[in-house]
Amino acid sequence: MEYPFLQSLVIIFGVSALVVFVLHRAKIPSIVGFLISGVIIGPYGIGLIGDTHAVEMMAEVGVILLLFTIGIEFSMAKLAGIRKSVIIGGGGQVLLTIVLSALAFSPATVDARRAVFWGFLTALSSTAVILKILAEKGETDSPHGRVMVGILIFQDLCVVPLMLLIPSLAGEGPEIAVVALKMGKAALIIAAVLLSARWLVPKLLHEVVSTRSRELFITTIILLCLGIALITSRFGLSLALGAFLAGLMVSESEYAHQATSDILPFKESFIGLFFVSVGMLMNIGYMVDHVWVVMLSVLFVIGLKTVTGTVAALLAGASLRTAMHAGLGLAQIGEFSFVLAVAGRESGLISEMFYQIFLSASVLTMMISPVMLDIAPSISGWIMSRRVMARMNRLQGASSGEALPGAMQDHIIIVGFGLNGRNLARVLREVGIPYAILEMNSDTVRAMKKKGEPINYGDGTSPEILRHMGAEHARLLVVAISDPASTRRIVSAARHQNPELYVIVRTKYLAEVDDLTALGADEVIPEEFETSIEIFARVLNRYRFPRHVIMDMAERIRSNSYTALRSIDLPKRHIFAQDRLLPEIALDGISVPEKSPLAGRSIAELEIRKKTGVTIIAVRRADTVLTNPDPAFRLQEGDIVLFTGDMKSMNRAFAYFSGGLKDHEG
Questions:
Q1: How many structural domains are present in the chain?
Q2: Residue 466 belongs to domain spanning
């Protein structure tokens, strides 16, 4: 065959497209489809692809691009915000997993060093799998998403010391000086990359963009991504960590969104190859022959890592429900464990039989991961609903020193104290409306308590916590968190406790509107459509549409759960709404409502200029536009009146036309 690699790509994409399409009909995630495709076409399946080396090389590019885009979306500020999850959560998870795994494997071997190495293999989770699932669900910035990302970052950092410790475990000597030197180099390169993110890269991208060459911009972005990944790998760090750091560098510039848009098509194609290459590792025959051993290994890994991930997240300050969600999400073996396993096999730390069991169990845990993350909210919610967990949650809240405002009446409960929650609280404080805040970030709670905010630590999904917040006697509940599953549970629990409670929910995506409304939310505000409303309002305002027309359109869209925006019937633009006809004039307009007392009366009789201060400069009736109408001109229902004046005069005119004569005569 003249083009064997091209043939392999055609087979991979052809089989993957078919399998992913079939599984999509069954609502099974695409990751599972790619993994199954790899099992089918790999050397242990029907053998359509025998040499997997070239595929694995391209798969590495997929992981690099995935971590690069995650780094762009994350930014340095967000990384600083999850430092507790990285240091405490990640450190606790890795250490606990290694220790508990080594203790569990100790009876199977008399060599403690081998038991510790098996702990190394179990400690790492799949960065590629978890980050892709979180991105698809829109949960990267959710509480459990931030915890998982922080722990995964620490795990990737641990690849270096774990690889350096393998010779020591194999009995080849500790070589402490070599380990210290390599760790120092790794720390140096990370520091250099982060400093470049603030000083060098933004200036470089500015110069590139100034050339107005899209090809040069894309080439530069790919060069930064692959180049930083290669440099970090030369210093002993993983390629994926280098790509993540490269993404952080780009995130500090104003060109981050464009970079993400340009890289996205490449990432989606190459990341599919990664999951296919992982599926190719599974030896179906071996797994069938040792099915019980493999299944026990899978259950052991899931159970152990769920426990260690949960405990680590709790140590990092996460709530019990968030910690359990994160623990279930991290309950798989990662792709970098394959690298450790190969090195361990070459050093004699694991046998060929254990290596095959490890590969089978690893691929199966990756396949199960999408399902684990799907059921994690239900499992964590069910556990939290048990009486013993409710007690633990109350104790956890009490440990933060809050006094829950159960005695409040007719107040507003704000769940989530991010940007939206802070802005709402500021307005409520200024107008004197009582409110209470529920927040899951203990650091935020402590800081805001010192500033006098009525903020409490607690999980809004718990009916017990909502009851203590006074949900039964509150007037309003505002849910402003970035966690779709928790938002649904909060709405359901609050509606069950107080059927009269008015519930307003903020969500990122329109797809959540119908579900949240069905659960009992009175108003659901999707960020993406509110942004759309604001944009079209400003655009129409520039084209001199009457203000009441714009406001009516926005209200109509909101009142119908935003469905109108999907098929909106915009009114035709008025002839006088052309900037070229009325350049640089501050003006506005309004139509004469049906059955208005203004209809049938002349401009002179209405004394519009005298009573409001505005000057009528045009009236449109049907398709006719009359400029500078005579004082004897009589208005009719449906006339669109264009006037000019200062803001106070315009406001009086709006009130005059909307309310008729009753507020102005006498």
A1: 3
A2: 393-521
